[in-house]
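Internal QA ticket QA-208
Title: Verify multi-chain structure generation after dependency bump
Assignee: T.L.

Test input:
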Amino acid sequence: MNPRFSLLLFMMAGMVVAFAPLPVPAVAPQARIFRIDARQYAYSASELEVNQGDTVIIRLVSADVVHGLYVDGYDVSVEADPGQSATLTFIADKPGSFRFRCNLTCGAMHPFMIGKLTVGNNNWLFRSIGLAMLAVFGVILSIKQKA
Amino acid sequence: MAKIELTRNPFIKNAIKSRYPQLAVFIVMLVGYIFAILAGLIGTPVGSHNFSIVFVWIAWWAVLILVAVPFFGRGWCAVCPIPLPGEWLQRGAVLSPPEKRPKWLNLRVPKMFRNIWLQNISFLLLALFSSVLLTTPNITGIVLAVMLFAAIGLSTIFERRAFCRYLCPVGGFIGLYSQTAPIELRIKDKQVCVKCEGKPCYNGSAAGYGCPWDVFPGGLTKNTYCGLCMECIRTCPHDNIAINLRPFSADLAKPSTRMDEAFKAFIMLGSAMIYAGVLLGPWGTLKDAAYGVGTGAWFIYAVVFLAIIFGILPGFFSLGLLKTKSNLPFKQRFASLSTALIPLGLMFWVAFSLSFVLTNASYILAALSDPLGLGWNLFGTANFAWQPMLTTILAPAQTLALVVGLIWSARTAQKSASEAGVSPLPIIFYSFVATSTMLWLLL
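Actual output:
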């Protein structure tokens, strides 16, 4: 097969793997309430999973110093004083995996005080692994063709 | 793609041959470096508001790993301030060679140390303490000062740049990854070097110093140990040395057979994966262990860290190699095929750094106005609020980096395997598993 045509074919396949719409399971949105304890330099719970469309209510409780919780991709945040709690509410309308992190300098390891929110399936991870598989397949095919 | 000789351009050639442009950059870098040491030692202990942390581990690191290494190879080494004071002391001059050189010991580095094992060890030492180093200004200040004084000390004992060549923790991986860069310093005509009397590029002359990196340019086939200091371009009496633009990863077509370089590839690959899990992952227990230097948890972390790098990663790699049949000795196959991990590791670091840098880049503006965290507002940006940048494109950019790294690694594996007369499939599968793990850690 013409190498340029093969490359074009693989690029098109890559676009399909990366961007083809996937069926979203029909689950009725609900309110999901989480209590997150924040301490230097960790959240507990640190991994949250919700369905797309759910209303996420996070009660952030700080155990030691002032901590914040900022959700990447949603650009929403909340701050809690030591021994106090604060509540963040938002609708998880964007699917995927998002890091949440402390947005108030809380000590040395502050930049790495991170948690993870997964909304629906982490499709981008599966798509990325699919792209990696496609890439490997393409390279192996080109090796076979050269041989 | 054919090579393009950049030094044919008279402007570039003159800028390299004159010592003044490089000196100007050196002075700016040295002032910045000394300021970073001082900021670390006397500035605020809050890392995200201290010049030493923000400019070294966010700004410099971003430039180094996202731009300098992939596109300019050892371009950073060409302007690095760390060896300067020692080198000036060793030479007894700042610019051209003096008539009379100072009498330092000028010893040759013992043969057993003429490899990159010491650089592997120095990198690992920093890596094991990285959670503290990356976040604590005075530790960063101390480490920067130790590197500066180590370079000075070694310059008074050994000839040339012993620190850069054999000890610098950063220089080791820059050298490894510089093989992928689309830039090189090479001779134009080998016969000219063969006939050249006195070899001033290596031994020095009135026009300049002998290669500070202890490399004879006439024998250069890889970027790994050429620090792009440009000294040989100044000393070559035959105008036989050029800076060329070339295709990416040209050096990887000639796989290394050295175990120190092979293990450097594993160290860098493993460190990127461990950092992605520990620093950017959601697991607080891992962060506590990495930060709690001296505690039992930290010792376990250190043992696991070293076990991944020296046991698990090379172990699975070796298992893949055992499945292949070749006339080459196993050690040689191992070293040669580990070349495929060089582009993979580089792109792992790019993907890791994208997340770390884009999230924390907004600290740069604030630290610029208030570098010591003393309440200054030099440029009116001291109160610039923290804000992650480009979070929507971060995951696709990381995927792109990792998949490109995988393709690059697979192509390199194909070439290395062909030279070793073995199948590249186990190495390609290994790279795929490593990439999938990194994707899982980052996404």
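Spot checks passed. The mean pLDDT of chain A is 93.
Status: verified.
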